[in-house]
Fold:
Amino acid sequence: MVRARAVDFRRHPWTHYAVLGWRREIGYSTVTVFVLLIARSVTAWAPYVVAAGMMAVLIGNRELREKITRQWRDAKRERTLQAVFWWADLVGRSGRLPVVKKITVTPVGARFLLQLPVGLHLGSIEVRIEELTATFNARSISVRPTDRGARFVELSVIAQDPFFREVRSSLLTVESFNLWDALTVGVDEEGASVSVDLPEHSVLIGGEPGSGKSVALSNIIAAAALDSKCRLTLIDGKEVELLAWRSVADRFVGSSIGDAVAALEDLHDVLSERYRVLAAEGRRKVAALVGDGLHLVVIDELALFLRGGERAQRERFAELLRDLVARGRAAGIIVVAATQKPSHDIVPTWIRDLFTYRLAMRCTSPEASDTILGQGWASQGFNAATIDGERRGVGYLLAGGGSPRLIRVANLTDDDVALLVARAERTRGS
Structure:
């Protein structure tokens, strides 16, 4: 026999928060009725004129109309959230519900800043997150702390699949690009744009074939190609992956490990020369304000160069790569490396840890995911092996400190790449 839940109306959101929850509607209605009563005391037809005037103002003032509509929708969201907390029995010791301090609408849901009552804390919400999600009938809910103190948390409600539609690259709408600017690479789970700052950083990308690794590379290469001051070196282990960009590259190297080592040797000379110039000018690093150009180095199929060829060549390649990634940041040299089927023997820890940005696309195992992101992230829930195989371009991005972030990389079709190459040729005068 199912026992009905006893309702404590002192705690019920529709009674305990009745006035506060409907305060906007009550306020607007009260003001409207008050104005109409005053008009009625003047003359019988005055209320009609006033009502028509108020409607004309709402229709004619788009900003005011959108503000009122937004407030009504926020009030409904607030009441719904408090009802969900009550039905999930997440209340404070005195029966109080969390107070919504701010609501931010996202492309796929909403984000709530909550002030928790005494008796509730972040941990008590985290252990009930699945129940909250089901009660809210949402796709997913996440909660995280804020810098306002332990009584404040940020609750994100995802109402729909954030990656349900294709993300188009912002580079398709510009004629040129300055690589010193932040590059938008895709969207996160809340549908918000995700950007990276490439200067003084390096990027490691790994994933299974068909996971979207090539698209991620193309976004970065396109940004560099559209910057006429940026030098572009492409080292393509498969010889066809980066071939479309060959006409705008300053140097293109195929699968020959000897040619790849020679290219890195020349880049090492560029690195040494830039450090010499910086020392002579009394500067610590290159900077956009003094007109310094950047140099992007892309290495696709890293495994070929770290495991192929003769041992001396492999060791020399690894030594030069490590030096470029470690010291290249201050000299304006950005290294982007990508590999399929990542494993520890292909991407050693001493190489991986030098990369400041790491993007793990779909992998076959938690170990492969950790090879890119770092040991232990998969066990904490950031496991690229769990990414749906149908979600091409989705991966975990680890940017500096913090936790990995699930994103979908902006898509570039073959036609898009051809368009961007032609545009880059004009920009560079190729």
About this structure: The domain at 170-428 is CATH 3.40.50.300 (Rossmann fold).
